[in-house]
Amino acid sequence: MKSALARMALLLLLVLGLSACHRQDDMPWRLVQIAGHMPDLDFDLTDDAGKQVSGKDYRGKVVLLYFGYTHCPDVCPLTLAQLHVVMQRLGPLADGVRILFVSVDPARDTPEVMHAYVNAFDTRAVGLTGKPGDIEALSKRYRSAFTREPAKEDGNYEVSHSSAIYVFDQDGKARLLSTPNNPQSDMVHDLHLLLAPGTAP
Description:
The chain is built from five helices and ten strands, in the order H-E-E-E-E-H-E-H-E-H-E-E-E-E-H. By secondary structure, the protein is an alpha+beta fold. The chain has one domain: 3-Layer(aba) Sandwich (Glutaredoxin), CATH 3.40.30.
């Protein structure tokens, strides 16, 4: 009799454990889940203060990683402006987030240029630049892409690039992917889940 009760108790614990895992896996994310499909946040670049930094320097923060460049005529400024609104909507929770803006045009995007650019949008944004090979390697790491277009008569040129935003949790694990099709509310909702589970609006 005691052994039967023990087996039932063990079975109950297993069922409760599986239920808890199921509920965790089925959290109502609105962005695309990429956990297990993308590598951890890792890089060696120069930030907009001229300091060498790596992915480990941003542990403890939820990171929004975006590839762009300061001469971008439309998509980049629009994306950064939208991320600023997202940060505003997060309120005090925004202190736990960092926007990492990685330049795909390191020839023109010096740390000084990057600093002025990203801070015009949000003080929690960090501009990252580096050697062309390092930028290309990071882009490939996250299956992003960019191509420099032919220069115009005045010498200026544009860079075509992917426009997704990669979301990493406080441990540097890739968690979510936001595309231009996702409204701001989706990002706000999912960041609430990462920063303070149970507080999503």
